[in-house]
Design brief:
alpha+beta; CBS-domain; Beta-Lactamase; 6 domains; 6-stranded antiparallel sheet; 25 helices; 24% strand; elongated; DNA binding; HTH_TyrR; ATP binding; nucleotide-binding; transcription regulation
Length: 675
């Protein structure tokens, strides 16, 4: 775009409206110009040129007579683009202060505009990535741009006036172009250069005067196609990663307008069904309407750094979010927010106080997001309504006691005692007295008043026998009698005491195998195994790792009064770890991360160091966790490798390089995994 101030000339001569012809001639001559502007009371009202002066003299006017001038002038702001007006010969430019900045005649303006447009056109032609060659009707080269010279490896001075038809090798006939036909996507060769492009007839005033060849080197085009194909595959890979992830990715501009949403859309959090319904909305509108709190975008903008927050909606949906500001040349460009739903469907902490006992039972919170735990809790709560004995099986640290609490509080016994017994922690010589109690004087060192056993204390409530597999064989017989008869006898006593208790047993050992080895009574096993429930290890429910990690972090933050947050990369490392110690190990690791991380953010490097130490040999390898057909095992291992690779490297291109397969194979496999 060309502005008036780009082409204006300075005004060299100004004369009064009552000047004589002679005075104006002298003024124009001394100023060495061909135009003078006429002024009246400080304002320009017209102009007079040398040609107009001569016309006045030729008509017989005396040199001392007053001049006549023309007034077809127009004043325009000099910052406006050049345009032309009807019945105007001279344009006077006015600057922002209202002063005259120069002038231009319409003819001169047209000439200047054409020159500048020609310069721009030449810059476009020579700077284009397309070769351009023009010939006349005899196929003689009349013009070629710099790109064509570069493509062909020959200067224009060498090719000008040469017959282009004789230089080209191609299947099509150029005569068709001179007959008015356009040839599209034609392959041709010149000087061993392979080209592809279009031939156009050149028409001037309706007559074909030659042709124009616009082309590119096929080699460069194929490279460009490969780059486009790579970008397309990369986009597909990223979209597959986003769609298969559990995170919502939100992009917000510097003014708070939501631009894009990718990944898993958290519709319950936004109170809307589709992501498209929030695009273009202001993020602040949602917090003002109390859809959720707080506004993490606002926190990020104010603090000018990456921030993390747990956001909560009106219906108690809880979302862990990390907001990262993106700056360009020191100016905020956008904020990217990564969010994940950490809502637990378990009820919050409650406490019940026993009026007849000094036991205070606190319900433990179950934090989960996985379908496996959801299904387990559904079965568990149905079983809790009955008085049947329940056997909880699971690895050490999987949370068996927490689920035992859930059974108790879901039962009709929730207002009665919950007694936990660790069968492996009580010395063998004391376990009978602890479980069943003793009368006064029953043995040396016994309390003079006697003591009620744990079964008595659990009357009307629940007794939780943890690590039941560690119970000695002689005690297994006595426990079997208690379960069968629903009564206990204290050591040293002669009377039996009836009890009404719900028994929940738990073990991290294979009781069936122990029965086969003679280490556990078969009759007791069947008494305990009325309703068996398996607690899956943490590695089988990876969806729960993230909410548990956040839950423990929030607990320790309150305990130690500190501020710490995970980076998304740190969470990815936690989710890929095998967790042989299950939830107990995760809780310990989170506390260790808080101790060892010196910065506000717990990042990937510190998590790797805490989990694996410095030894490469400790790194967890992908593995298949159960027996299955070989074909399924290979597919499972392939899935684990691809998921591990995407977590670690982020792109299918890098994963394909590491695994030694094509990016297309990775993309197909990812789509299959997603389905």
């Amino acid at each position: 775009m060309i502005l008036w101030k780009d082409i204006l000339k300075p005004i060299a001569a100004v004369v009064g409206h009552n000047y004589s012809i002679k005075s104006v001639i002298q003024k124009i001559t001394s100023a060495q110009t061909d135009i003078a502007f006429v002024e009246k009371q400080g304002a320009l009202i017209g102009y007079i040129t040398n040609g107009y002066l001569l016309e006045q003299i030729e008509t017989g006017k005396n040199l001392d007579e007053q001049i006549q001038y023309k007034d077809d002038i127009l004043k325009v702001p000099d910052s406006l683009p050049v345009e032309f007006f009807h019945n105007v010969t001279v344009v006077i430019g006015v600057n922002s202060s209202g002063g005259v900045s120069g002038y231009s005649t319409v003819n001169n303006s047209r000439h200047q505009l054409n020159e500048r447009q020609l310069v721009h056109l030449n810059e476009i032609i020579h700077g284009a990535g397309v070769g351009i060659i023009r010939t006349n009707s005899q196929y003689e080269i009349e013009f070629m741009n710099e790109t064509a010279e570069r493509f062909l490896g020959m200067p224009g001075s060498f090719l000008l006036s040469r017959n282009y038809q004789s230089l080209l090798t191609m299947e099509k006939d150029l005569q068709n172009v001179l007959d008015g036909e356009t040839l599209v996507s034609v392959n041709s060769t010149i000087n061993f250069k392979q080209m592809s492009g279009n031939f156009y007839p050149l028409k001037i005033e309706g007559k074909i005067t030659g042709l124009v060849h616009m082309f590119y080197l096929r080699e460069e085009f194929e490279e460009a196609v490969q780059e486009v194909d790579f970008v397309r595959h990369l986009y597909a890979d990223l979209q597959a990663v986003y769609d298969s992830s559990n995170e919502q990715i939100l992009v917000i501009d510097e003014k708070g307008t939501i631009l894009r949403v990718a990944g898993k859309f958290l519709n319950s959090f936004w109170k809307t069904k589709e992501a498209d319904q929030i695009i273009g909305k202001q993020i602040g509108d949602f917090t003002r309407r109390n859809i959720f709190q707080p506004n993490i975008f606002e926190l990020c903008v104010k603090q000018k750094k990456k921030v993390t927050s747990i956001q909560e909606s009106a219906d108690q949906t809880r979302v862990w979010s990390v907001a990262t500001p993106v700056y360009h040349e020191g100016k905020l460009e956008k904020v990217v927010i990564l969010s994940r739903d950490i809502t637990s469907t378990a009820p919050t902490h409650t406490e019940t106080e026993q009026s007849t006992q000094s036991f205070k039972t606190e319900k433990k919170q179950i934090v989960y997001r996985s379908g496996k735990i959801s299904a387990l809790l559904s079965n568990l709560r149905r079983a809790a309504k009955m008085n049947s004995t329940i056997l909880l099986e699971g690895e050490s640290g999987a949370g068996k006691e927490v689920f035992a609490h859930e059974i108790h509080f879901a039962s009709l016994r929730k207002d009665s005692p919950f007694i936990r017994v660790n069968c492996g922690a009580i010395p063998e010589q004391l376990i009978e007295s602890e479980l069943f109690g003793y009368e006064k004087g029953a043995f040396t060192g016994a309390d003079r008043r006697g003591k009620a056993g744990l079964f008595e204390l659990a009357h009307k409530g629940t007794i939780f026998l943890d690590e039941i597999g560690d119970l000695p064989l002689n005690m297994q017989v006595k426990l079997l009698r208690v379960i069968q008869e629903r009564e206990v006898a204290r050591i040293g006593g002669t009377e039996t005491i009836p009890i009404d208790v719900r028994i929940i047993a738990a073990t991290n050992r294979d009781l069936k195998e122990m029965v086969a080895d003679g280490e556990f009574r078969e009759d007791l096993f069947y008494r305990l195994n009325v309703i068996p429930l398996r607690i899956p290890p943490l590695r089988e429910r990876k969806e729960d790792i993230f909410p548990l990690a956040v839950y423990f972090l929030e607990q320790f933050k309150r305990m130690y009064n500190i501020e710490k947050s995970y980076t998304p990369e740190a969470i990815s490392v936690l989710e890929m770890y095998g967790w042989p110690g299950n939830i107990r190990e995760l809780e310990n690791i989170v506390e260790r991360l808080i101790v060892f991380s010196q910065e506000e953010w717990i990042d990937r490097e510190i998590v790797l160091k805490v989990l694996y130490g410095e030894e490469e040999s400790k790194k967890k390898q992908p593995l298949v966790l159960e027996m299955m057909p070989l074909k399924e095992a290979v597919a499972e291992l392939e899935t684990q490798l691809i998921e591990l690779g995407m977590k670690k490297y982020g792109t299918a291109a890098k994963v394909s390089e590491i695994l030694g397969v094509s990016p297309a194979t990775i993309s197909r496999r990812m789509r299959k995994i997603k389905k």
